Amino acid sequence: MTTTGPGPTGDAHVVVACPPGLDLRRTLGRLRRGAGDPTWSGDGADVWHATRRGEDPATLRLRPVPGGVRVDAWGAAAARALDDAPALLGLLDDATGFAAHLHPVVARAHRTHGGVRLARGGDVWSAVVTAVLEQRVVGVDAKASWRRLVLRHGAPAPGPAPGGLHVAPPPRVWWELPVWQWRAAGVDAQRSDTVRRAATVAHALRDDLAPAELARRLLTVRGIGPWTVAEVTSRALGDPDAVQVGDAHLPHLVGWALTGRRADDAGMLRLLAPWQGHRQRVIVLLELAHRGQLPAYGPRGRRALPLR
């Protein structure tokens, strides 16, 4: 990875060497919360992302170049965001021991989508908020709430970002939001109260924690259960073994893809057991390979199992 310091426009950049075949858009696309996510933008071959490290904002522009990806950054957190660029691109994703050959469907998905890596988003707090917003509601509604709240209470992304790109608010802003602002965005009391409780311990939800330790800390927050934990650790830390137990449609996807039959949570865990340590990797591959092919088993929105 080569680095260039601040230039005449106040930006800095790194060029990250990447293996041939890296699927940049699909790798990063798992972090994006819908096509209208105001913290992401696509501009030709470029991908733009507005993020935070603690209270400080940063804008990233990721551009494929020969042999890798050039990552430009602006904002107070630019240096930290650049340090995290290899992880964001999935280059810290270690697939050692992943036995795709154990099932022909998984092996085929791996051959087809081998350029997709598990990205480590780094912004734990935003992953917490989006996961909580997606509890027990249809995904499209949760994503619309995220968009409204970020556009209204976030800040324009620093640097020469495309119009409309915003940095999500820091924890203190989420904690201070009045009830009517939550309701105007379509967020009920249970989810808004959970976000506010999480905001009081946001300082302890760090991106340098191991997935198991972050999970332990998240589970101390009332309203956060196993589904939400798996969503956060998989997106923010690139956890290769996270499993979203309690999802409304994921067990059916895994069951249908691997056996041709529906499954419940227990059945899904049994089917994924041969890939212990890489279960999220299998889930991602199956979602990519079978997107839009799942038989209609009811609502496609995601829900979280209530913990208390």
What features would you highlight for this structure?
single chain; about 300 residues; alpha+beta; six-stranded antiparallel β-sheet; 14 helices; globular; disordered C terminus
Shape: globular
Main pleated sheet:
6 strands, antiparallel
The strand count comes to: 8
Q: What is the string of helix and strand elements?
A: EEHEEEEHHHHHEEHHHHHHHH
Give me the Rg, rounded. 19 Å
Uncertain segments: 6-10, 297-308
- Mean of residue pLDDT? 92
Distance from first to last alpha carbon: 46 Å
Our estimate of the beta-strand percent is: 5-15%
Structural class by sheet pairing and helices: alpha+beta
Helix content: 25-40%
Please count the helical segments: 14
Spatial arrangement of strands, main beta sheet = 1-2-6-5-4-3
Give the topology, please:
Blueprint: E1 2-4, E2 12-17, H1 24-29, E3 40-43, E4 46-53, E5 56-65, E6 68-74, H2 78-83, H3 85-88, H4 104-112, H5 124-133, H6 139-153, E7 155-156, E8 166-167, H7 171-176, H8 179-184, H9 189-199, H10 211-218, H11 226-236, H12 250-259, H13 265-272, H14 279-290
Antiparallel strand pairs: 1-2, 2-6, 3-4, 4-5, 5-6, 7-8
Helix pairs in contact: 4-14, 5-9, 5-11, 10-11, 12-13, 12-14
Quick structural summary:
Helices cover 40% and strands 14% of the residues. By secondary structure, the chain is of the alpha+beta class.
